[in-house]
């Protein structure tokens, strides 16, 4: 009776999380292994992974815990964070996320599991949401072209510096920054300027551009509006003078202030940048938030990052797509204008929807309320004898209290309010959407001026507004109907659902994108992100108030170092591209510290991710391309020749492992040794780390530095194209050159290269996701996840191999965690293109794999470990059925210019109209394996990209266009 008894301990443990994360169960894995020709996961990985890179020891990670245990552990960490009223300012503000947006965007997998909209036909919902965001930014900044978001305000300002140098009349000279700019922005600009030889001059521009600076030449100017001190001043005189000097002028602006103040465009600015955080996005200890950039029309085609444009589909109907510079890094490589590959789409969607929900009137009300609190606060301080430095301000005051600043800040903290200690004599105080009367009373008390003050309502009656009459906004904005139709929660809820239904995300089915690792983003990992203890903390709050965060950050850094075999990790880079840059800056600083300033050559295989080359140029390096052999591996002979050619100039080799072609290169050890022998460093791009975790560690098989993609391997969701996190991991000798931060010494070494992101720990608000993933899986779970990822890729390759050539394989004919199928012979024989196959997959209910990267005319497939066998088979069967359709085109049964592939995807509207095609409506919409009851219907037909680029429209049309 007791032979099958299960112990209480086993029952308490429940189902291990690993079984929730990994799609194929034991029975499915056995079937897949049989297809591939192996008896176990260990046998497969023993054959696939080269001996030279294999790890022999188990990862030193804490044992896996259950979902309930991990949530309890995270709750304990969250409770160690202290939430005080955030009146520090400096570009980060308390905000109220409308619950309808919190629940239906940030917490909704239809939005957070979507991929970047490179397949626009199945991304129309998020593209419309991004067009809303672009319209908000363009309207409020008064500049006609805005991008689909950048990483943060400081990065946007650095991109504006690069843009100014590229498009301006003055090609030399200095980049001039106003002393009242945000300190973190100034620091990031300096980090980005130094490697490219740009001199940054920071000076007080309140009285204009100093003559001695003007004489040296000025190619660009950055102004803050309102300033970091809170000052609001008329920027027109300094902008006019800058233009006389031939400089391009950037204004870093506050979107909420711009609902009341004259726009940067009207003031004469060429570029506007900033952060949309206070439009309903939690502070999250620094991010993620959607930075923005808007430019005048002349610079529209030079805008860095992504731009959503309006085009037409095959029926001439309006359709949205990414315009102009889609993935330009992969096309232009070292000639790219920026290394930014991801945006902050999820956060841009939230900020845009905040504006949709409130509309222009609601935004103005929030701004007026915020300003009114600041004005009343100033009135009370003045009544108590405290000097307010600036008479004109929006939400931020600078109080002059000689010798007492630290005392005041301490007293405020004891009363539950965080203020900014500017220096020994000045205190900064910022009001926001969450400020209330209790906070005003606490601030007055901290300054010691509460005795005998009149009531707040009396102060309100006495206090004049502090916005200059000459800078009050008079033009209209946000006139498009979308900003007027969704005032009720019912209307907003339905709008968000309608857009989500137009998209394809992981909540619908598999997204088999090679190199992008679209795996499960578990709800347990996601849930803590929205807890206020993680979401509502200001990034510049005193570290003693963030002990839970700092513990989580330290533990995640240590565990990532253990997983990768490196010695030290920085979590500051808030995208993979910024992790690349940080790693290369560390290499550059290391060589310079050793007196090797001539080491500037960066060797990059021709197959590498395009961001590698763009990042190298930004780090002040010269890119030299190394050939890739026909087998997809680095051409060892060409590499040795290049090492010999450049010798003492060699700084670093950037290599992706497994290779971008999806194979484990057997010669990686020799490659690393050759570079090291020549005095260079080895940068292992971490984009394909999902094939290594638990099996091999780049820091142990030859890497000196890697960036990791937490939004790939470590389960932070892609969010429709962002957020991302790109930590940089280094061996001990490079650790002194990791990023640091001027406002937070604990964020990096004193000898560091400077910040690469605005916040000390980058997008800290989403780090609980990866912390939870590692904690839930443990060492064995992470290893098995990798093994199943490799198994799944090989299973797909074996099933498709009889129908499509698999372009590259490694030892034993095996691939790593992804495979490339070659459509070029079929295209040559039948005219069916890789685009046709990608769009036809939509009709079968799939997002296409990665198209034409790294090889034109191919599809790169990465199934990940999270897709179960039924979904893998559904995909394989769809691809096999498409191969049969291609055969019908090749045989002449279907014309080359009129067949289900060339006309894909098929919308419901297309099927309900006239039908003159040589295939049936059923063949179009319900090919083999597609259920009519579960059909995903694309909202538009194939989009004309060239039309959209020729006729660039990147914001919502004005209200007048609807009248006509």
Automatic annotation (TrEMBL):
GO CC annotation: cytosol; glycine cleavage complex
GO molecular function, one term: glycine binding
Cofactor section: pyridoxal 5'-phosphate
Residue positions where N6-(pyridoxal phosphate)lysine is found in the record: 712
UniProt cross-references to Gene3D superfamilies, sorted A to Z: Aspartate Aminotransferase, domain 1 (3.90.1150.10), Type I PLP-dependent aspartate aminotransferase-like (Major domain) (3.40.640.10)
EC identifiers of the protein: 1.4.4.2
Source species, domain of life: Bacteria
The Glycine cleavage system P-protein N-terminal domain, residue ranges: 19-447, 457-739
GO biological process: glycine decarboxylation via glycine cleavage system
Entry keyword Oxidoreductase: yes
The reaction(s) this protein catalyses: N(6)-[(R)-lipoyl]-L-lysyl-[glycine-cleavage complex H protein] + glycine + H(+) = N(6)-[(R)-S(8)-aminomethyldihydrolipoyl]-L-lysyl-[glycine-cleavage complex H protein] + CO2
Protein's UniProt keywords contain Oxidoreductase: yes
The Glycine dehydrogenase C-terminal domain, residue ranges: 785-906
InterPro entries: GcvP, GDC-P_C, GDC-P_N, GDC_P, PyrdxlP-dep_Trfase, PyrdxlP-dep_Trfase_major, PyrdxlP-dep_Trfase_small
Keyword tags: Oxidoreductase, Pyridoxal phosphate
Pfam family, one: GDC-P
Function, as annotated: The glycine cleavage system catalyzes the degradation of glycine. The P protein binds the alpha-amino group of glycine through its pyridoxal phosphate cofactor; CO(2) is released and the remaining methylamine moiety is then transferred to the lipoamide cofactor of the H protein.
Family, similarity comment: Belongs to the GcvP family.
Assembly mode: The glycine cleavage system is composed of four proteins: P, T, L and H.
Protein name: Glycine dehydrogenase (decarboxylating)
Species per Swiss-Prot/TrEMBL record: Streptomyces sparsogenes DSM 40356
């Amino acid at each position: 009776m007791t032979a099958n008894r299960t112990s209480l301990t086993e029952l308490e443990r429940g189902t291990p999380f690993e079984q929730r994360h990994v799609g194929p169960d034991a029975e499915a894995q056995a079937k897949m292994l049989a297809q591939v020709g192996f008896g176990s996961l260990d046998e497969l990985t023993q054959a696939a992974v080269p001996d030279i890179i294999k790890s022999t020891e188990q990862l030193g990670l804490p044992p896996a815990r259950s979902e309930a245990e991990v949530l309890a552990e995270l709750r304990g960490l969250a409770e160690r964070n202290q939430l005080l009223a955030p009146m520090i300012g400096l570009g980060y503000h308390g905000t109220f996320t409308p619950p309808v947006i919190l629940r239906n965007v940030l917490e909704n997998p239809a939005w957070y599991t979507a991929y970047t909209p490179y397949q626009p036909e199945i991304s129309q919902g998020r593209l419309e949401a991004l067009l809303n965001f672009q319209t908000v930014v363009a309207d409020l900044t008064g500049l006609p072209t805005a991008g689909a978001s950048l990483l943060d305000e400081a990065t946007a300002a650095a991109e504006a510096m690069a843009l100014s140098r590229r498009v301006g009349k003055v090609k030399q000279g200095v980049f001039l920054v106003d002393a009242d700019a945000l300190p973190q922005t100034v620091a990031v600009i300096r980090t980005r300027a130094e490697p490219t030889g740009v001199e940054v001059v920071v000076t007080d521009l309140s009285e204009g551009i100093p003559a001695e600076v003007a004489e040296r030449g000025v190619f660009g100017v950055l102004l803050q509006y309102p300033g970091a001190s809170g000052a609001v001043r008329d920027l027109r005189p300094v902008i006019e003078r800058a233009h006389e000097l031939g400089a391009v002028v950037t204004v870093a602006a506050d979107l909420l202030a711009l609902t009341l103040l004259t726009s940067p465009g009207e003031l004469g600015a060429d570029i506007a940048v900033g952060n949309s955080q206070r439009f309903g996005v939690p502070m999250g200890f620094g991010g993620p938030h959607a930075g923005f950039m808007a430019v005048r029309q002349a610079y529209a085609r030079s805008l860095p990052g992504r731009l959503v444009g309006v085009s037409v589909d095959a029926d001439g109907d309006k359709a949205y797509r990414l315009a102009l510079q889609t993935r330009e890094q992969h096309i232009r490589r070292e000639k790219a204008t920026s290394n930014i590959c991801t945006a902050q789409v999820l956060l841009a969607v939230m900020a845009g929807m905040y504006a949709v929900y409130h509309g222009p009137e609601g935004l103005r009300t929030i701004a007026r309320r915020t300003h009114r609190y600041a004005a009343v606060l100033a009135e009370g301080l003045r009544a108590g004898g405290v000097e307010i430095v600036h008479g004109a301000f929006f939400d931020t005051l600078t109080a002059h209290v000689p010798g007492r600043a630290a005392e005041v800040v301490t007293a405020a903290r004891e009363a539950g309010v965080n203020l900014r200690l500017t220096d020994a004599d000045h205190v900064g105080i910022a009001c926001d959407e969450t400020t209330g009367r209790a906070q005003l009373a606490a601030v007055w008390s901290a300054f010691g001026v509460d005795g005998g003050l009149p009531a707040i309502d009396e102060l309100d009656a006495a206090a004049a507004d502090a916005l200059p009459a000459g800078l009050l906004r008079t033009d209209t904005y946000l006139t498009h109907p979308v900003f007027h139709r969704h005032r009720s929660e019912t209307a907003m809820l339905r709008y968000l659902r309608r857009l989500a239904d137009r998209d394809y995300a992981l909540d619908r089915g598999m997204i088999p994108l090679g190199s992008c690792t679209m795996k499960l983003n578990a709800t347990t990992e996601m849930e803590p992100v929205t807890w206020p203890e993680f979401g509502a903390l200001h990034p510049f709050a005193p570290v003693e108030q963030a002990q839970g965060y700092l513990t989580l950050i330290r533990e995640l850094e240590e565990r990532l170092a253990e997983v990768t075999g490196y010695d030290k990790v920085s979590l500051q880079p808030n995208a993979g591209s910024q992790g690349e840059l940080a790693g290369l800056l560390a290499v550059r600083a290391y060589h310079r510290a050793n007196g090797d300033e001539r080491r500037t050559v960066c060797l990059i295989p021709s197959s590498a991710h395009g961001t590698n080359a763009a990042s190298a140029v930004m780090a002040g390096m010269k890119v030299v391309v190394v050939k890739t052999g026909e087998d997809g591996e680095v051409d060892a002979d060409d590499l040795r020749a290049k090492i010999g050619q450049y010798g003492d100039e060699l700084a670093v080799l950037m290599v992706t492992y497994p290779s971008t072609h999806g194979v484990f290169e057997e010669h990686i050890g020799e490659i690393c040794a050759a570079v090291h022998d020549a005095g260079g460093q080895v940068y292992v791009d971490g984009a394909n780390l999902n094939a290594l975790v638990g099996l091999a560690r780049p820091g142990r098989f030859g890497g000196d530095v890697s960036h990791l993609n937490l939004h790939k391997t470590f389960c932070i969701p892609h969010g429709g194209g962002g957020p991302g996190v790109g930590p940089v991991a280094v061996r001990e000798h490079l650790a002194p050159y990791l990023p640091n931060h001027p406002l937070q010494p604990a964020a990096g070494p004193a000898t560091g290269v400077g910040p690469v992101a605005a916040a000390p720990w980058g997008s800290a608000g989403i780090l609980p996701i990866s912390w939870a993933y590692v904690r839930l899986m443990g060492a064995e779970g992470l290893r098995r996840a990798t093994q199943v990822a490799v198994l799944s890729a090989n299973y797909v390759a074996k099933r498709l191999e009889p129908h499509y050539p698999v372009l590259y394989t490694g030892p034993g004919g095996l691939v790593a965690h992804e495979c490339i199928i070659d459509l070029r012979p079929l295209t040559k024989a039948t005219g069916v293109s890789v685009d046709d196959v990608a769009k036809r997959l939509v009709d079968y209910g799939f997002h296409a794999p990665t198209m034409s990267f790294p090889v034109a005319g191919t599809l790169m497939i990465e199934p990940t470990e999270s897709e179960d066998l039924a979904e893998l088979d559904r995909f394989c069967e769809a691809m096999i059925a498409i191969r049969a359709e291609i055969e019908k085109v090749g045989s002449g049964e279907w014309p080359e210019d009129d067949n289900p592939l060339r006309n894909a995807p098929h919308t419901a509207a297309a099927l309900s109209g006239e039908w003159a095609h040589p295939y049936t409506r059923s063949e179009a919409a319900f090919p083999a394996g597609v259920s009519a009851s579960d059909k995903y219907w694309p909202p538009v037909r194939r989009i004309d990209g060239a039309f959209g680029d020729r006729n660039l429209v990147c914001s919502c049309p004005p209200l007048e266009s609807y009248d006509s």
